Amino acid sequence: MNKENIFDVLNERGYIAQTTNEEAIRERLSRPGLTFYIGFDPTADSLHVGHFVTMMVMAHMQRAGHRPIALLGGGTGMIGDPSGRSDLRQVLSPQVIQHNVDRFREQMKILIDFDDDRALMVNNADWLIGLNYIEFIREIGSQFSVNRMLAAECYKQRYEKGLTFLEFNYMLLQAYDFLELYRNFNCEMQLGGDDQWSNILAGIDLIRRKESKEVHGMTFNLLTTSEGSKMGKTAKGAVWLDPEKTAPFDFYQYWRNVHDADVITCLKLLTFVPMPEIREYGQAQGAELNVAKARLAYEVTKIVHGEEQAEICKKQAEALFSGPGRSDSMPTTTLRKSDLDSGVLVLDVLELAKLIPSRAEGRRLIKQGGIYVNDVAVSDMRQTLSANDFDHDEMILRKGKKVFHRVLLSDE
RNA sequence: GGGAGAAUACCCAAGUGGCCAAAGGGGGCAGACUGUAAAUCUGUUGUCAGUGACUUCGGUGGUUCGAAUCCGCUUUCUCCCA
Q: Around A312, how many Cα atoms within 13 Å sit in the side-chain half-sphere?
C-alpha cells in the first residue's frame, strides 16, 4: 500500500480552501521533491498564531518530502498588501522590516528544518529593491490587465474606499516573486492563506505567459472561530509565538479556552495529533470536550515552546484550577522585601504587573470583586501586601477567573 | 483644477452654545450561572485623586461669562464635475 498522498492528508485535516487544477496537484504531490513557497509579511517583530497554520502546512509538506521556501516580504512589506484590508496599511521603514525578518527566521526554525537546503528562506527585498521601474512595467506590467485586477474580489472592497497606486502594485510584485522563484529555484507551487488567492493566481498567470509552464496554487483556510472572527486575537492584541510577547502560560491558556465548536478544527490544523485520535475527541460531548482542549493546549504549546514548557504549563494549569498553584511560566513581577515595609498597595502591584491599563481600571476591578490575592478577593481599595501574603517569597495575583500573575519577593 | 460634504472615545454612531466625560449599539472587562466552554442575566467601560479636579470630540487661532456645538485658517478623507 502506498503512502497516503499529502494532498489528502492536508485535505482531511481541513487545511485546503481552494486549489488550481486539483488532479494535477495530487499527481505532482505524489512524487517528492516539489519546491513550493509561502510568503510572510514582516509587519511585526514576531510571528503570531495566524502564521502558525501556515507553518504547519509547510511542516506537513516538508515531512512528505517536499521543499518549502519561506519568502519573507522584506520588499513587498514596504508596500503592504491591500487584499481584504479596509484601510491603508502603515508603511514600515527598511530597518524595522529587516529586524522583523530576522526574528521570523528564528521562530520558523521551531517547525521547519532548514538544514542542508531542505528548506530555504529568501527575502524578496533581494530582487525587488533593485528593480528598474521602466524595465519592470515593460516586462511584467504589460502582462496585467487592469480590468481584470479591478474585478478581483480582494480589490473590490478597497475600490470603494480608495486604493492608492502604491498598493495596487502589490499584486504585480507578488506575481513577480513567484516568477523569480520559479526561475531560480524551480518553485512550482505557491501556497497561502485564502485571502491570497488572487495574488497567487496572478503569479501562476504570469509564469504561464512568460515561461509557458503550468504551475500550481493552493490556499488554506484562515484560522477563524466558529463565529467567523479571526482567531488568535485577544483584547491585548495578537497571540504571539514569542515567549517574551506572550508568556507560555498565557499561550497555553489561550488554547485551553477555545470555544467548544473550535477544538476539533484546531486540533487538526495546529497539532500533529493523528486523525483517528482526533475523530475520537470529536465524539466527545459537553464537559468531556475539556479533555480535548487540554490536549490541544498541550500539543500546540509543545510545538511552539517545547515539551518541557508544555509540561510545566499543563501542571500549573491543573494546579491553579483545582486549588492554589505555582507557576514558573506565568508572567512574573518581582518586588523588593524592603518595599513591603512602606506598604505596597495591591493597586500598585496591579499597575506594576501591567494587569491594568490605568489605576481607575484597577479600582473598578477591586470594587467589582475581580482581583484576588492568593485566591482571596480583595475588597478594600487601600489593601496592602504584607509578608504574610507570600509563601516562599511568592504569591499569586489573579484578575478575574483566568488571568494569573506571579509576584516574587527579592532580598535586594 | 472647480464644487459639495465629512472628521466624536477601542469600533460604529448620536449630539448643532450651558443640564456633555459626551446618547445608543458593538466590542472589552468584572460578577452570577457553568465545564477554565457557549448562551443568558447584572454591573462597568477618559485620567487622577474618594463625592471634586483635570484632559478629550482632526489640528490651530478666535468669538463668548461659557464651545464637541459659532467664526477664520489648516490637515486628512469621501463624493460630484474636469
A: 15
For A208-234, the three-class secondary structure string (H helix, E strand, C coil) is: HHHHCCCCEEEEECCCECCCCCECCEE
- Is residue A90's pLDDT more than 60? no
ipTM for the whole predicted complex goes beyond 0.90: no
Q: Which nucleotide is nearest to A229 (CA to C1')?
A: B27
Grid cell listed for A118: 531542505
Asked if A331 and A315 touch (Cβ cutoff 8 Å), the reply is: no
What was the pLDDT predicted at A343?
A: 79
A5-22 burial, b at 16+ Cβ within 10 Å, e below that, comes to ebbebbeebebbbebbee
Answer yes or no: is pLDDT of A360 > 60. yes
**A348 CB and strand B closer than 7 A:** no
Residues 121-160 of A with CB under 7 A from strand B: 160
C-alpha–C-alpha distance, residues A216 and A207, integer Å: 10
Q: Determine if strand B comes within 7 Å of the CB of A393.
A: no
Determine phi and psi for A195, rounding to 5 degrees. Answer: -70, -10
Tell me the three state secondary structure of residue A36.
Answer: strand
Torsion over CA of A267, A275, A227 and A247, rounded to 10 degrees? 0
Q: Band of the pLDDT at A261, cuts 50, 70, 90?
A: confident
Better-predicted residue by pLDDT, A125 or A90: A125
Using left for φ > 0, alpha for ψ between -120 and 50, and beta otherwise, residue A237 falls in left
Please return the burial class of A145, using the count of CB atoms within 10 Å of its CB with bins 0-12, 13-18 and 19+: exposed
Question: What's chain A's length in residues?
Answer: 412
Asked if residue A253 keeps its beta carbon closer than 7 A to nucleic acid strand B, the reply is yes
How far is C-alpha A243 from the geometric centre of its chain's CA atoms? Answer: 13
The single residue listed with the C-alpha cell 514558573 is A328
pTM (2 d.p.): 0.86
Comparing CA positions, the residue from A55, A41, A57 lying closest to residue A170 is: A41
DSSP reduced 3-state for A254: helix
Q: Is the CB of A236 under 7 A from strand B?
A: no
Residue A183 makes CB contacts below 8 A (sequence gap 6+) with A211
